[in-house]
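Fold tokens
===========
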Amino acid sequence: MGAKRGRPPTFSRDELIDAARRLGPDGISLQAVAEELGVARTSLYWHVRHQAELGELVFAHLVHEASVGDWTPGDGATWEDWLDAYARALRRTMLAAGDWFRYATARLFYSRHALRSADRLLAALLNADFSIEEATRALDFVTEIVWANVRASTDMPTKAGRDAFLAEIDLLDVHDVPVLRQSVEARENTTVDMQFEYDLACALAGIAARASVMR
């Protein structure tokens, strides 16, 4: 953010965030937020320059709130326990932002808390006799699974893609692609939580199999 200019506003950053949260991610034009606070729009520039930056500020606040507390497993935890706990904590943190996730930027994923969490996980994997290369790949793999699941839970492009997929199937003869049609029905009964549990279990099993070969 650029240098602040003018006199400090009569509202705090927390009050700005609260006002934006009341309006929701779809309603945070700077003018709307200024009216919610009862101030001039220009006074918002002390904290943010545009709507995207305001959304980013709210997202970061929500993620920080959800990051409070120790996510690590207890004494005697296995490396699987560490990866499982890390994945669940990361997903819980990201989902806490809800529809504000659309304002997420790459740098927000690298808060001090996030970096320290990754460091603790890697240390636990090294203590379990992973090499640093192997531990890094495991961390990256599990992290990608979490991001994919969170995006599926929050991103409109995912829904648009699913709708297009279903529309194409509807254009086919009713007897065409019968097994794929069964799969579509099964997918409708699969929640994002169910998919996350499946993905994470597969990831841990795959890492275990790969690690045993590489050591």
Observations:
- The chain has two domains: 13-49, 68-214.
- The radius of gyration is 22 Å.
- The domain at 68-214 is CATH 1.10.357.10 (Tetracycline Repressor; domain 2).
